[in-house]
Amino acid sequence: MTAKLTAVRAGALTTVQDAGRRGYAHLGVPRSGALDAPAMRLANRLLGNDPGAAVLETTLTGCAVRPDRDVTVVVGGAHCPVTVDGRPAPWGAPVRVPAGAVLDVGAVTAGVRAYVAVAGGITVEPVLGSRSTDLLSGLGPEPLRDGAVVPVGTPAAPVAVPAAAPWPGPPAELVLPLRPGPRSDWFAPSALRTLTSATFRVSPHSNRIGLRTEGPALERASTGELPSEGMVLGAMQVPPDGRPVIFLHDHPTTGGYPVVGVVAEPALASAAQAAVGTPVRFTLD
Predict the structure, then answer these.
(1) What pLDDT is attached to residue 285?
(2) Is residue 271 within 8 Å of 76, Cβ to Cβ?
(3) pLDDT per residue as tens digits for the range 190-232
(4) How many whole angstroms separate alpha carbon 270 and alpha carbon 113?
(5) What is the CB-side half-sphere exposure of residue 167 using CA atoms within 13 A?
(6) What burial letters (b/e) apply to 51-72, b meaning 16+ CB within 10 Å?
(7) Which residue of 68, 85, 112, 217 sits 20 to 30 Å from the alpha carbon of 23, by its own alpha carbon?
(8) Residue 123 in contact with residue 131, Cβ under 8 Å?
(9) What residues contact 138, with CB distance under 8 A and at least 6 apart?
(10) Roughly how many angstroms between the first and final C-alpha of the chain, as a whole number?
(11) CB neighbour class for 202 (10 Å; exposed up to 12, middle 13-18, buried from 19)
């Protein structure tokens, strides 16, 4: 029989995430999936899982779970304390958690989102080919609640664990490469200069749908309204207040505010770990 994890402490926001559900944007379904995909993949590889196996993604305050059978886990992504029944355990490396013991993933000390991978992967029922929670559409499992139970798959054969894993640190300054368009002509030339010369900051209103920024407003050249059009991962939409929003994995697939540019997908992993107040600069790609 395979193991199950019971949530002892669900934390501020803990969701099941994997590589996401691709290919359904035309139906109004975004990709979803782990915001820091490299962290998810590395945690899985250290356990011999498929790189895209489902994990728990925590937000700021971590979570605590109790397995009903012995399991091996890796906690990575944002830096945080890890304990097993109150005893310190390694972060970023495989940890054996005995049946009935409590794995506690503490509040982050740097970064935003930690990833809890379990040997065998989290095996909640997939929806449209993915086990990811989509906060915008409500697809996939609900965010973890105290007392919730999630199943774990059968672990792969043991793998050789490297002496050190290349876990990147969270950004002290978030530098995002931007490709202008498709609606950059809706903005005054001064707005584009502001976008690439000013320093913005991560807003506390950021979430899995979008990274919101605080800073100078971008002046529009056109005051008209756009019909809703398709939105892609990394699109930088500018609402009426003029402060850019970078769409992350749970973003809407259509929108009516002009998109001044698109941030390349590889840069979004750093955005997932940028804490509130982190300086943000945009560079032309």
Answers:
(1) 79
(2) no
(3) 998 999 999 999 999 999 999 999 999 999 988 778 888 999 9
(4) 11
(5) 27
(6) ebbbbbbbbbbbbbbbbeeebb
(7) 112
(8) yes
(9) none
(10) 51
(11) buried
Summarised one tens digit per residue, pLDDT across range 91-111 is 999 999 999 999 999 999 999
Return the number of other C-beta atoms located less than 10 Å from residue 136's C-beta.
17
What CA–CA distance (Å, rounded) separates 198 from 248? 22
User: What is the signed CA dihedral for 108, 50, 47, 36, rounded to 10 degrees?
Assistant: -10
Sign of CA dihedral 149, 92, 210, 125: negative
Q: φ and ψ at 26, to 5 degrees?
A: -70, -15
More confident residue, 136 or 63: 63
Q: How far apart are CA 60 and CA 6, in angstroms?
A: 20
Residue 279 has pLDDT above 90, yes or no: yes
Query: Helices in the chain by DSSP H: which ranges?
Result: 37-45, 189-197, 268-272
Whether 72 contacts 159, CB under 8 Å: no
**pLDDT higher than 80, residue 182:** yes
Cα 88 → chain centroid: 26
Residue 10's pLDDT band, with cuts at 50, 70 and 90, is very high
Cis before 170? omega within 30: no
